[in-house]
Each structure stands twice: as C-alpha cells, then as structure tokens.
Amino acid sequence: MALLDIENLTVKFPTRTGVFVAVDQANLSIEPGQIHGLVGESGAGKSTIGAAIMGLLEKPGYISGGTISLKGKSISGLDKASLQALRGKQISMIFQDPLTSLNPLLTVGDQLVETIQAHLDLTSGQAQQRAIEYLELVRIPEPEVRIDQFPHQFSGGMRQRIVIALALCSEPDVIIADEPTTALDVSIQAQILSLIKELARDKQVGVILITHDMGVIADTTDVVSVMYQGKVVETGTTAQVLGEPNHAYTQSLISAVPRPDEKMHRFPLVSYGGRSHEFNIESLATSWKKVDIDPEKPLFEVSNLTKRFLKKSALLPSKQTFSTAVDGVSFNIQQGEVFGIVGESGSGKSTLARMIAGLYPTDGGHIVFDGQDITNAKDLSDYRRQIQMIFQDPYSSLNPRMRIDAIIGEPAKHHKLLSGKALQHRVDELLEQVGLSAAAGKKYPHEFSGGQRQRISIARALATQPRFLICDEPTSALDVSIQAQILNILKDLQEHLNLTMLFISHDLPVIRQMCDRVGVMQNGIMVEQRETEALFTNPQRAYTQELLSFMPTLRGIKSA
Amino acid sequence: MLTRFCSKWSCLLPERIRTALDSDFMWRLSRSPVAIVSFVVFALLVLSAVFAPWIAPFNPYDPASLDLMNGFTPPATANDFTGQRFLLGSDDQGRDVLSTILYGMRISLFVGFSAVLFAMVLGISLGLIAGYLGGWVDTVIMRIADVQLTFPSILVAMLIFGIAKGVMPAEYRDQMAIWVLIISIGLSDWVQFARVVRGATLVEKGREYVMAAQLIGQPTPIIMWRHILPNVLSPVLVIATISLALAIIAEATLSFLGVGAPPTQPSLGTLIRIGQSFMFSGEWWILLFPACTLLALAFSVNLLGDWLRDTLNPKLR
To answer: For residue B316, is pLDDT > 50?
Structure first.
C-alpha cells in the first residue's frame, strides 16, 4: 500500500465560458522516503494537484471525481475541520517564495513553536527544544541564538530552510514542495535540494516535488510524472523517463532542455500539440539594412563602469552611504558577437545592462559605441536608434492597454524612421516574420501566451533594425519548449543579420548555448571573462568553478 | 475557446458595442442583483433629472405657475382653496414638491459630477506627477495632501466656499455659487485620487514596458500620458463612483447649512433645509420626499461603487 494514493483525480474549474478541466484523471502514488517529481509546463495542472491534496483548491475549483487516500484512508471527501487537522500534521507544504511564506512579525522560534504545539502535545519548553533541533536539522548555524531572530534577519536560502523546518516539525507523512527553489539562486538551490533529498530518506517522508525544471528533476527525484494539459502522460523512474521517454510530449520537452555539457547549433524542436512556430529569418534578412564597419574594431567598449546606489540619504553629502552595484567593469564586444553576462541575483548584471541601455546614469567609467563616447551624453537619440532591448517578463514588457501594432510600431515611429502606410506595412511584415499573423496587430497583449508575447517583444526590438540588442534574461520567465523557440530565434538573428548582442542570464546552460564569450559577475565585479567553451571546460576563478559545480548535470537525460 | 454569446438582437449592434456587452464586466453585472437594482435606480434618477423640464408636472422656477393659495397641500389630496392636486404635495409657496425634487436633483447631480470630475483631473495629474517623478516633487505634493487630510473635507469645502464668497463681488455671488460649490467640493476631494494614482504609478513605472519606452528615449510627459495613465485608471473608476456619492452628500450638507446652492436654484440639500423648518408643524412631506430622494441617490451610487471595487479589484475586499 502506498503512502499517498491518488486515483483518477479530476479537478474542474467552472468558468463563464465552460468548465475548465485543470486535472484530468490523474493517477499518482507516493511511497515513504521517495521523492516524486511532478513536471510540466505552466498551466499543466501540477500545482492544482498539490492544492487538491491539501484541500486548498481556489474557488470555484472543485474535485469532481477520483479519490485521494493517505495510508489507505480516503481524504478527498473530508469536511473542512478534519482537513484542517490533517493539513500541517500529516501533509505539509513548502511554497515557492520564502519571502512570503514566513510571518515577518514573528520570530522564527515563535512560528516553529506555534506549529509544533498545534500538532504535537508538548509543553512550550519541549517545543522550544524541538524547534532548535529542527533548525539544526536544516543546518541553520547557531540555532539557539538564531531562533529568536526575525525572518528578515536571514538570507533567502536560510529562509527557505526555515520553511522546510516548519514543514517538517509536525512530523508529517507527506510534504508537497511546490517549486521550492524557483525563487533562489543556483548555489542555494543545490543546498535546498540536497537537504530535501536527505530529509526524505532519513525521516521516511514522501515528497511530491512540483517543478518545471528538468535539471531539478534529474538531480533530485526518484520517480517522475510528466503532466500535459491536466493529464499525467507518463510516469516512471527518473532514469527511465528522462533516458527513454515514451510519450511524444516528454520527448519534445526533454529535447528542449539546454544542455550544460555541449553547445548545440539549434535546439531540435520536436513539435507537440501543434505548437511549432515558424520564424521567417530569410524574409527578415533580405530587407535588413547593411552597415559597413571595420570588423576588427570592437562595436562596444565598456571601461571601468561603476554604479552606486544611495543606501542612506542625508543632508550632508559626507553622511550619505552608498552601495556599489557595479564596480569598475570593463569589456569589449566585437561586431556580430554575443557577449554573455552570468551571475547570481544581486550581482549587478541587470544594472550593468540598464546603464548600457542609457536608462541609468553612470557614476564612473566610459561606454563607447562605434567609436563614440555615449557616457552620460546629452543627446542619445542617435545611439538609441541603434540599440534595442528584450526584457525578462513578457507579461510586463508590453503595455496592456496598447494594441500590438501600436506597441511594435512605437520605436520606429518615435525615431521618425517610418510613418503611416509604410509603418503599418513594416509591422505586419514583422508579425509574420516572428510567426504571428498580421491580424494579431489588432489585438491586445492579454490575448497572447507568454511565448507569443516574447515574439512580439522581439518584433518590437527589430522594428528599428538595431545593430545592438540587449537581452536581459529573455527566457527566464518562459517554459522550456518556448525558451528553446526563443533562443533559436535569437541565434537566427545573430547568425543571419550579424546582430551584436549582450546576453544576460543566471542560467549557465542557456549561456553556454547562446554566447561566444562570457563574463562572470559577482557582487558588482567581473571576476572572469573568457571564451564560452574555455570558461565551461576550464574555469580559472574559484567563484566560476563553484557556479559551474552547481549547474544541474542532467544525468541520464537522453542526448538529442 | 471562448464561445461568443450572440443573440438575435445583439448581432445587429456594431462590433464595438457588441464586444462591450459581451465583456466579463457585463457578465458579472448580470450576475449581481444588488448591482443591477442599484444601477437601475441610479439610471432612473439621473434620467428623470436630465429630462426634468419635460417630465416635471410644473416648472417651479416659473413665477407665473406659483400660487400662494396652493401652499401646504398634502400629497395626493386636493387643495382646500384651489382644488389643485399635487402627487407629493406642495411647499409653503405652493410649489409642487415632485417638480422641485426633479429640478433640485439636476443641481445636485451636476454639482456632484462636476466636482468629482474636477477632483479627478486634479488628483490624477498630481498623483501621476508625484509617483513618476518622485524625489522632492513627490514629497511636496504628498505633504500637501497629508495636511489637507487632517481637516474634515466638509470643513475644507466650507473654508474655500467662504473665502470665495468674500473675494467675489456681491452681484455675482448667486450666479457663481454653483461653480464655487463645485470647486470647493472638488478641492476637498482630490487627495484620494492622488494617493491611489501615485501608488499605482509607483507599481507601473517599475514595469518593463515603461522601460521599453524610456529606452527609445520617449519624453517623460508622453510616457506618463500614453503608457502609465491608461494603466492606473481602473482603481480611479472605483474611487470616482464612491466620491460621487460623497460629493452629492457634501453638496447637500453645504446647502443644508445654507452656504451652498442659493434658494433661487434649490438643490436637494436646499430643499431639505427648507423642509426641516416645517417638520414639526405637520407638513412632513416637504422634508421627507427630498430626503428620500437624496438617500436613494447616495445609496445606489455607493452600492454601485462597492460592487465595482469588488469586481475590478478582488484583492481589496
């Protein structure tokens, strides 16, 4: 008998336009001490399964069929009170964001003791003792001291470990971890995952690990279920599913994962569910404006670039304190080259990109573009016409109240490159080149999916025929198969249009696929700068070596 | 896929109206009885105010129609002297109460709408500027707003009204009274709009589409007007509705206190002020009917506002 058995679970969300089946006859079974991965793209229904088990389905969603049983006892038909008793005690949950899952007004100890006493019959002294033990278990240093601290006094990784301690302290049988490391840096992700792995084995807890990240699945789970549009399409041991995927969807998903160990020319796109999109690079290349320049001279020269942010304001300048976000960074980018910048959150890579884009004033150093110093220049309009940017979040980079044709046409219109019929023609052409129809121009952003929006964002960036493209985490908000499409488009642009790019990412495998040269940033300083292949095969600096060691290995994933 | 609802009559309408009717907004409206009732009541009141000259049985402003003999006629009974009947009775000067209510509502609604519009334009502009520019501009605008919030808004309105009356030449006082009323209520009410718009602007200006506009070098006023403004308007709609109810009540209060609409252009508040002096002498209808109308007006607008807030921003609930 399995610890947790889910049979034919169906979850429905009645909406105005009909009933949406979020989970469709899903079967899962979790054994004690086992980590069961639930992988799929956004909207596949993986989090809905987690919520259904916890009895936390958002209204108007409801379980319309099937059973969930814990140790042979059905829990899907329970009333509110008994579900509440079950929640936390026998099943607990780890959420994505450690910033919001801890109460900022209570000390860590208070929250642990409260949870322990709610579920176990212990005096406050015993509960306090136990809380310290659990903090020790999740490797918080000096637990006796830190138990009286507030969540904001801990780092993001530590906070997630406290959340794990909270989930464990009631000695549950099952833990549901919903994207537990998505909000964390790779180095912390590695710690958290190994902690979950170890605790599951030692405490014989069944873990459901919900994630979209194939690397996490490959490194952590024992068994994996692949979900697509509410259905579990494939279940098996991790080695089996990743190594010999049976279902066409699993195959397409795995082929889209960026490989950390080799550079591919293009991602092989195995289309599934009619989602392959064409990108018409040839037609774009024929109309592209050619610029004659000396290929030997660097297009971009950045020297000693520095940016400080005011930390504490004061009337007297001597009393003000600053934090240095970017500290004396220098690099060159050749014509037609893709230069990558990689680093963890807070390393200053986005600040650097924004200074180069002319969005932030600089506090020192020079930016020279095509022989012209544009550092804090008065008139940037000439420079601005030649650069464009692709942003991270396709849900926030398009103005929701503007029509697509107005969004794409805006840069060209602003720079007075095109107007009237010619502008409309260019917009229609661009829409078709990025794989959308010209009719899409009459719609608003909310009518498109994340991947389509990112294509629109690319179309906007290409409308002025820029020479230099800044990509700030262009795929980190996208599903892997969409990421593969977008990266292929960017590769096409670079190859056929000889477009120069600055490519910023925290994702090492993506960097490896995209970039010719890479700079590694840590705390505002560029610690290493080399050819991509050399950096990945033979990193020089300790920090780079550390970063590379945290990269998911994708052991056992079938090579394409 | 969305299955578009399309009945026989709606297919005849132009595309824009049809999509508007088919929106989620209208769908939610159709599922809330409270919202429908309050919407219908409000629409009826507004329509009857707008069409008052055509539907009112008498013109209370026309001295020729006034007959002091008709004074104090109870509702729906014949006058002892003239035999004239008034549906809701008549006041001390023989004016039909129903007609004065319809005409009074015109003034009340006009003042309410205009004051909210004025407060909205002022509040949105200042909030947008404060939120987007930040720094000392933000500090100055929001401190002024904070100071104003320490006074009850009716006091602010009375103060502005009093100053304006003192400054203006006597012969214009009555003529300009309505406009002074609008400006004083509007000035006492802009802070809410400014605060909400500033908050929403702070959120929107961090979004990447604003950065995309900055990247191509669009000037600040264009970014504020074209990119940020359309995205901060939905909370404004909610506040505007609730402010409308407040403005109508503020106008009634001012008029009740005798500092608002002049007796030559009586608003609902003026009617209530006139009516309350007859309350204890038995002529209850002169007070009761205008008061009920004010209640229905303010109540329906308030309910609509609450419903709008729940619909447009479920998190505020």
So the answer is: no
One domain, residues A199 and A307: no
Residue by residue, DSSP assigns A434-490 as TT--GGGGGS-GGGS-HHHHHHHHHHHHHTT--SEEEEESTTTTS-HHHHHHHHHHH
User: What b/e string do you get for A168-205 counting C-beta neighbours within 10 Å, with b at 16 or more?
Assistant: bbbebbbbbbbbbbebbbbebbbbbbebbbebbeebeb
Mean pLDDT of B196-208: 91
Dihedral of alpha carbons A480, A482, A486, A492, sign: positive
pLDDT of amino acid A210: 93
The per-residue pLDDT for A292 is: 66
> B interface toward A at CB cutoff 8 Å?
1-3, 24, 27, 207-209, 211-218, 226-227, 230-231
A401/B contact by beta carbon, under 8 A: yes
Based on the fold, state whether residues A241 and A335 are members of the same structural domain: no
CB < 8 Å to B230, chain A: 399, 401-402
Percentage of chain A modeled with pLDDT above 70 = 96
The answer to whether A414 contacts chain B (CB < 8 Å) is yes
Calpha distance A320→B203 (Å, rounded): 26
Subunit contact A415:B216, Cβ cutoff 8 A: yes
Point out the residue among B1, B209, B215 whose CB comes nearest to the CB of A384. B215
Quick check: A339 contacting B, CB < 8 Å? no
Cβ–Cβ pairs < 8 A, chains A and B? 56
Q: Tell me: do A319 and A447 sit in the same domain.
A: yes
Give the per-residue pLDDT at A560. 47
The owner of tokens 């590695």 is A190
Residue-number span of the structural domain to which A38 is assigned: 4-255
| Cα torsion angle, B303, B308, B311, B316, sign | negative
Q: Are residues A143 and A33 in the same domain?
A: yes
Query: How much is the average pLDDT of A123-130?
Result: 90
Question: Between residues A541 and B57, which one has the greater pLDDT?
Answer: A541
Question: How large is the average pLDDT for residues A392-419?
Answer: 90
Q: What does the pLDDT look like over A134-157, one tens digit per residue?
A: 898 888 888 988 999 998 888 878
Residue B168 contacts residue B97 (beta carbons within 8 Å) = no
Q: Could you give the domains of chain B?
A: 92-316 (1.10.3720.10)
> A345-349, A419-423, A467-471, A514-518: which has the minimum mean pLDDT?
A345-349
From A222, A238, A255, the end of a domain falls on A255
Domain boundary among A255, A287, A322: A255
With respect to residue A184, please indicate whether it lies within any of the assigned structural domains.
Answer: yes
Q: What average pLDDT does the segment A158-166 reach?
A: 87
Give A410's contacts in chain B (Cβ within 8 Å). Answer: 213, 216
Distance CA A233, CA A225 (A): 8
Number of domains in chain A: 2
Distance CA B136, CA B134 (A): 7
Distance of alpha carbon A164 from alpha carbon A138, whole angstroms = 7
C-alpha closest to that of A87 among A118, A45, A123, A126:
A118
CATH number at residue A111: 3.40.50.300
Same domain, A370 and A495: yes
pLDDT of residue B4: 44
